[in-house]
Amino acid sequence: MLRYDWRRWGRCARIGTAATVILMLLWIGDHGFAASGAAKEKNGEPDEIEQRRRLYEAVSLRTGLEWHNIAAIDQYERTISKAHPKTRPIRQDAVTGVYISDSRWSGDLNPNKDDTDPLSIQFFRGIGKDGSGDRKADRGKDEDLLYSVAVQVLQRGSSDEDFSIGLWEYYRNTRAVQRVMQFSKLYKHFNRLDLNGHAFPLPPSSNYSFRSTWGNSRGWGGKRIHEGTDIFAHSGVPVRSTCYGVVEIKGWNAYGGWRIGIRDLNNFYHYYAHLSGFDKKIKTGDIVSPGQVIGWVGSSGYGRPGTQGKFPPHLHYGIYRDRGLVEWAFDPYPLLRRWEREELKAMSPKRKPGGTPIH
Ligand SMILES: [Zn+2]
Predict the structure, then answer these.
(1) What's the CA-to-centroid distance between 319 and ligand 1, angstroms?
(2) Where a domain ends, among 171, 190, 209?
């Protein structure tokens, strides 16, 4: 039976914070989100996916913008709307996640903020357009919203480069451009919208142990909190992607050691640290699927490149949510338990759940 000195966990607490740009105090506001995690979100339901597909096809047909680019814009908008429900309210029955403010829609100087006349909106330099063919530019209509954004983004042209310039001109935010391009790549690669599956980061049949260590007695005022979950396992146990995503960062970090960061379509950044190594085939910008091996458990970190063995081998796993201009961590523990449960359920019912505890 292996025994680990739990007091040594303190070292790990330095990782998440130092490795990412986070507004530490703001995490409180998002803390409750963990309970409603990614897998539970509505966007996995087949009829909703079907409605979206139809909407993207219609807008694509009218604008010439490829469907995966339209889907990417819509999904990016949805993630930001979800992160800011008060300032970006979305209709209950909306198919699109696009939000456009009334003044941007109708034009800053337009005295009628509810204007639906495409001509007067154009006169006041609003971006609202009629995408449905009823001669009204209606902010309450999915086609009109998505069509209006697509027209703005297409002003430069429709090549990949034009598209990214168009995105920059629309959002004036390089992070937004990067996200939409990542999402577009994912949709194009898989050629479908339903990419919500998840996996537990270690093979459920392997030996591992974890518990909730979120914010573990690290104190607040200027001190670090533990932004993630430590999954203890032997060195060399495969580490797998938990989601469909794009590899955003891969390499050495003084705190996280060999670490890899993967962006998913919920605009979550999945962070895997202390690896003993990476799967050689995986490069930054690559696309990964749930359950795909990306590296192996190790104890790298806390020093110069290659440093290892300063703490027991474990996977530090964190999730950060992009909110447009900043991103911060939320507790991944409930999601980890859910993914573990779901994967075990999908495996043979005879198999004993959970592996053998190692502490
Ligand atoms: Zn940790």
Answers:
(1) 12
(2) 190
